[in-house]
Amino acid sequence: MKNHLLALSITLALASVSSLVQAQGNIAAGKQKAAACGACHGEDGNSLISTFPKLAQQHGSYLTQQLRAFKEGVRKNAVMSPLAMALSDEDMADIAEYYAAQKVSANAEPTLPPTDDDDVKAEDGAAKKPATIETLLAQGGNLYRNGDIPRAVSACIACHGPYGEGNKPASFPALKSQHADYLIKALSDFKSDQRSNNPENIMHMIAKKMTDEEIKAVSYKISTMK
Considering the domain 8-100 in this protein, what is its CATH number? Predict the structure, then answer.
């Protein structure tokens, strides 16, 4: 009887491992299936265009979640939505696992685009001295670590980790070395309701309380994390 129970336990354990491996996807298969993604996201998931996100070293669970959101219409994008519609669950798992296995590339030192000093104003309309990259990085670092308690802006570190590594079990994305331009757009889209149709999404609640300068500052800081 004990032998039968042991055999059953081993069989169930092996079945669980097999299911886990299948759920995680196949890296080799994912590389082939991701070939079409390279035009925007780079062959290894390190996009060369700053408005397209890097996918390298991103958690597979998060990538799969986002592909499903595109396919189901929860998240809308003129390019990604039709592409995701053609993917099976297995395709998504394979592609996600391939990108998760790649190493994200470091970014060059951030620089600010030129601005017309006469056009720089605070959100209340008052004239304001343009911020330097140094002050923005310092502001972004403080916001990432500590948030802005008086305005109920949560610290990014709580969900995305001290080094921007994210939280795989919770499917919170890794942010380190992401393009600043993409992060600025993503946060701005959360703030304006352009991204996600769920008003209770945590990123909606946070981004809506952030100023445009704070969005820029934390995005530049995250882009320097390695």
Answer: 1.10.760.10
CA atoms of 109 and 90, how far apart (whole Å): 38
Beta bridge pairs of residue 167 = 172
Instruction: Write down the pTM of the prediction.
Output: 0.83
Measured CA to CA, the distance from residue 158 to residue 154 in angstroms comes to 8
Q: Topology of 117-223 in CATH?
A: Cytochrome Bc1 Complex; Chain D, domain 2 (1.10.760)
pLDDT, tens only, 117-176: 445 556 566 666 778 999 999 999 999 999 999 989 999 999 999 999 999 999 999 999
**Chain-centre distance of CA 86, in angstroms?**
22
Domain map (residue ranges) of the chain: 8-100, 117-223
Give the dihedral sign, CA 85/89/92/94. negative
pLDDT digits (tens, 9 = 90+) for 217-226: 999 999 999 9
